[in-house]
Specification:
Length: about 375
Amino acid sequence: MIAGGDARVPVGREASRILGGMLARARADIHAGHLVRNARALAQVSGTPLIAPVKADAYGHGVNLVARALEDEPSVWGFAVAMPREAAALAPLTRKPVLLMTPAAPEEVGPLADLGVRLSVSSAEEVAALPAHARVHLKVDTGMNRLGAKPPEALRLGAALEARGLLEGVYTHLACADDPDLRMSEAQIHAFAAVRAAFPAALAHAQNGAGVLALGRVPGLDLARPGLALYGYPPEHLRARAELRPAMRVTARVGFVHTVPAGESVSYGALWRAPEDTRVATVQFGYADGYPRGATGRARAVVRGEVRDVLGRICMDQFMLDVQGLDVRVGEWVEVFGWDVLSASDLAAWSDGIEYEVLTGIGARVERTLVESAG
Ligand SMILES: *Cc1c(COP(=O)(O)O)cnc(C)c1O
């Protein structure tokens, strides 16, 4: 039936119009005010402007929305991404600098430099491939052993970059800043300081979000790169260091409501059985949207202001919620997590995961919107 099609079935613009009338089943509100206030709070603690990490679609929040929210915020110097495609997509949308934090392939270097993207380099081969108009942040490996040149090599690369007028920044990445034991972080900062001192004109940065909150102001650093904390999720033991609020609230629509008779089970595997006749809402949000299936048996969601149990196994597109005693209707919205009652930390705990996974896992079907207030 694909070949030839059916003349009665709309195509092209008419089909697009119909598609546009199909409503999203799940929404993510991205709170611009929380993002701005989190940025200011973190910049206050670090004593520096920020490079806001917006890799992985801004930790799932939507890079275009986050860039829009922070574009005019003076405490944000620029944005950082992980992939050349992310850099090339973002650079034309912002007046702020965009830093690519991973190596670009030789054929990507010229086009990225044309867009003004700041490149990261870790090796002599990468330095050799740079065009004359590149602006570069030299990556120094102080113990993460992921990217970067070891300090003696970094001194040589930095000198070569400086001689060519390409060096804008020098940076390192902390491996254990979320560990209450700060010895590793302090050793990394110490190793970095020696390289940093050789290039006083370069912008130096080292702290991720945990590093900002754990170390505060670090002499000699000019910028900081807090990611998860910017989105409102500091490490638990550092929560008192800054007032941060989650920036994302996910809500999903009730698609069906019915009464499950006593003794019958709900969802795959029949893991949950109704002890009595139970009112159950089917909510249109599943693991394909980022609801961790591993949270089955522990997950809860907010309906009509009450926190209720998710019943049975979380499915790909739906989950079932105990709404016994509530007059829940089809079409109303359930809060999966947000900034008031439940958070991404709860979903992470229920699924033995981390907030990074929960937030970056929020799927493409979830309609993201920038909101100015709690709404
Ligand atoms: C992701 C990333 C950050 C931000 O880390 P958070 O833990 O989210 O604060 C900073 N720097 C680099 C190099 C990164 O890859």
